[in-house]
Each structure stands twice: as C-alpha cells, then as structure tokens.
C-alpha cells in the first residue's frame, strides 16, 4: 500500500505523527529516530490510516535494534486517538521482508524471528537504558568539573541532584534517564550511582567516572558514525537530521556521498 502525501486531505495530521515518533529512540545511540533522520516518509490517508517508512544507516544494522525501533514506531503512531490503522515499513534492510511481515501481523519480536530470537527485547532495552543513564550522568558531572576547576573528582561522589544547574539540558536529560530506570529524582539523591541507585566510596569515584566517560564516548562516537553512514547511503538525508548537541561533529564531513566524489573529485 502506498499513500501519496500530496493527495492526502489530512496532511495537517502529519505533524502529530512526527511528534509521536519523536518519542521513539535508537536504543544504542540514545537519540530520537526523527533527529537521526531514520524517518524516511510519513503519509496520512483520509480514513486515518498512517504509513511510515523507516531507513537505517546500513542494510545490516542489528535486526533486534531494527525491530525494536520499528515496533516502537508502530506503537507510538497507533496510540494517536485519530489513527485507525498504522503501517510501519522498514526499507532496505536485509530482514525488511521478515520484519515488515511481523509488524503487520503484530507478531512481536519472538513471533517474528522464531528460533532465531534468543529472548525478547526487554533485556536489551534495559541494557541500553542503563548505558544512556551512565552517559547522561557523566555529562552532568563533567559539566560540574568544567564549571569549577578546583573541584576534585573524588568530591563528585557526594554531589546530589540539587548541585546540578536547574534548567540545564544535561540535568533534564539525566532526570529523564533516571525516571526510565526508576531511580530517585528528589534533590537529595546522589548523582553518581549504579543502576540500583547506590553511590560509591570516594576512592572508587575516579574509576567510575572514567568508565562512565568511556560509555559516553562510545555512544557519541557511534552516533557520529551512524549519522555519517546514513548521509552516505541516502544523499540528502542530512536535511532530515537535527543538530546533535551531545558530541560535536567534525566541521569537515567524515563521510562524503559517492555522488559528490564523482561530481567533484578530491
């Protein structure tokens, strides 16, 4: 089924769909699929049917990640009160046919992949929630160190949420990740904690901070890499990507579309 967007008389509903998709994140990159440029198209029919096409940086992106995002996208769109039918199609992936068939049948991950799936996606989702929290925690604590050069790393173990700048985007992101894990959000709660909300003794704080920094750098690096791969695979997709405040991207493009190289040899 293909719905021509230009023919739709309900095009005003497309922003509703895109806002709903803003809540769907790539689990590994901890960014909305809308900001990453993964939403290829949105079309709304007069009868309330919505068709969304997704694209990924490579054809071999993890099938479990791909299914998770596509499934979350279908759930988000289906939750809109005026939607009568949501169709989500993953394009150009080596498992597109299998995933799209499973989505259409609401078969779930295990029902779609059968014996190839070792378990459901709950464990995977939880793992990446913890990584996202770790990265957000590191960004906030590093912000405190930059704001006060005399602040010792060991002192970070006693910092509470009340010590973070109110209204700061890093603080807001951290609170959001803590909520996802069910960690306390009251002002007296420690910032540097494990996934159970437990703090660390002072002598462990520098090591825990370095490990958190490694996690954050890994997420930032993967995000930069995947954004570049998408722009290379789909020239013009950069116009669908939002600027990324976490992890600056290089001024000079790391990935140059092949069409550019053919037209402008370097």
Q: Oligomerization state of this entry?
A: single chain
Task: Report the structural category.
Answer: mainly alpha
Strand elements, count: 5
- Uncertain stretches: 250-256
- On the 0 to 100 scale, the average pLDDT is 89
> What spatial order of strands do you see in the largest sheet?
3-4-5
Order of helices and strands: HEEHEEHEHHHHHH
- The count of helical stretches stands at 9
**Strand-residue fraction?**
5-15%
Largest sheet: 3 strands, mixed
Helix content: 40-55%
Protein name: Iron-sulfur cluster assembly protein
InterPro entries: MIP18-like
Pfam families: FeS_assembly_P (PF01883)
Region (Disordered): 236-266
Brief summary:
With 266 residues, the chain is mainly α.
Task: Walk me through the structure.
Residues 236-266 are annotated as: Disordered. It is built from 9 helices and 5 strands. By secondary structure, it is mainly α. The protein has a 3-stranded mixed beta sheet. Strands 1-2 form a two-stranded antiparallel sheet. Strand 1 (25-26) and strand 2 form a beta hairpin. The longest helix has 29 residues, at 205-233. It is elongated, with a radius of gyration of 21 Å.
